[in-house]
Amino acid sequence: MAGMTRIDPKPTGTSHTRASEMATPALTRKELLERLRIEFPDAGHAVGDFEIEELWRGGCRLRQRYDKRGLRPGGTLSGATMMALGDFAMYLAVLSAIGWVPLAVTTNLSINFLRKPPPGDLIAEARLLKLGKQLAVGEVTIRADGGEDMVAHVTSTYSIPAVK
Known about the structure:
By secondary structure, the chain is α+β, with helices and mostly antiparallel strands. It has helices at residues 29-39, 79-98; strands at 50-56, 59-64, 71-72, 76-77, 105-113, 122-131, 135-144, 150-159. It is globular and about 50 Å long.
């Protein structure tokens, strides 16, 4: 299809696939962290509540550190906490494929809450399913740290502005 880029997903197998086996991202983890700190100095991304564990072209593995402020009644992590994690993971997946385009924005996000996550870190793995000139579509799986079962599944579309 004209104007489409095929994104090869992270290699299948364990979630601990070596970074050397993944496609090289459009910018390194270090470059991404530096740009996030400069562009979003007051946000907690990458330097606060989130840690980029792995980054490859079209995807990432992101950890959200536990914060008791994310708990809701019943002792589970809130839906808003998982939505923020899913959205940020997708943003990083998009940037890993297109390079630094900070004005790429969410145009759609849908989340299915599958199980109650216990208090603790959350792990998100994002991957792009389709990348075009103007839109990127992807999915994010969210698990409790150390857990096998998904606690949430996110699908999202990002709008990519024309770069001048």
